[in-house]
Amino acid sequence: MRTTPTIRPVTPVIGAEVEGVDLGALDDAGFEAIRDALMAHCVLFFRDQGISIESQKGLGARFGELVVHPNDPGLEGHPEVMRIHADEHSVRATGERWHSDVSCDPTPPMGSILRMHTVPEAGGDTLFANMYAAHEALSNHMKALLEGLTAIHDGGPYYREVNRLIGRDDGGREYPSSEHPVVRTHPVTGRKALFVNQMFTVRIAGLPPGESEAVLDFLFRHVQRPDFHCRFRWRENSIAFWDNRCTQHHAIWDYFPHVRSGYRVTIRGERPA
Ligand code: SIN
What we know:
- The structure is a single chain.
- The protein is α+β, with helices and mostly antiparallel strands.
- The protein has a single domain (about 5-265), classed as Double-stranded beta-helix (4-Layer Sandwich), CATH 3.60.130.10.
- The protein has helices at about 30-40, 55-65, 130-135, 140-145, 155-165, 210-225, and strands at about 5-10, 15-20, 45, 80-85, 110-120, 125-130, 150-155, 175-180, 185, 190-195, 200-205, 230, 240-245, 245-250, 260-265.
- A hairpin with a 6-residue loop joins strand 9 and strand 10.
- The longest helix is centred in the C-terminal third of the chain and has 15 residues, at about 210-225.
- The radius of gyration is 18 Å and the shape is globular.
- The mean pLDDT is about 95.
- The site of succinic acid has 10 residues, from strand 5 and strand 14.
């Protein structure tokens, strides 16, 4: 029997809840439905998916090659699986500012799949923002200014700050740094999306520092507009699957000292065009 999931938009702009699908046993029809829904809604949410780490890796691998995080050792025996965890001992939580995952990489991730197995009673929501909508909402003057510009995305400052906070010695390692278009064209939908973020984008190439700072500051604030957003309330065994090429996300750490814990796999993308 073919799987025909039910897709319910969360807002008209971004996000959809997908029902009637078992992500641990996805047939070809289910896979195609999810791939198409992801292109249409940018981030998908699933409930009651108590799948194993192997199944989560298998799911991600159907969409592309899984990548190892440049600053996270991964799970023992599963280097491509990142543990997302905060508890009463934590001094930080992953993803606490607007970003697109590992955008400092020369081929930044196409998508990320996060399953939460433990959630606080309240809080720990994740915000998602639509970067097509963010681009479309700019004036034609601003669009013309950004067209053709590139920006430097550097993993060093953010990852070193994380390591300092958690007391991890990075042994002086080098982190990826890449130059990407400020506005990228999505390789599947052909739509234009804003591609700069607060976590990794350090400057716009070819602009004097003051102009670069002013433009980035405006764009980082622009991304925070609530009409580009949806907010996901996690439950145990919820999964979120987002397209990093046309979204940003922000994990809210408002539940200290409670525990929030899950696993993320990240799927390699292409060089932004
Ligand atoms: C992340 O992948 O940036 C973390 C997202 C989250 O914890 O909700």
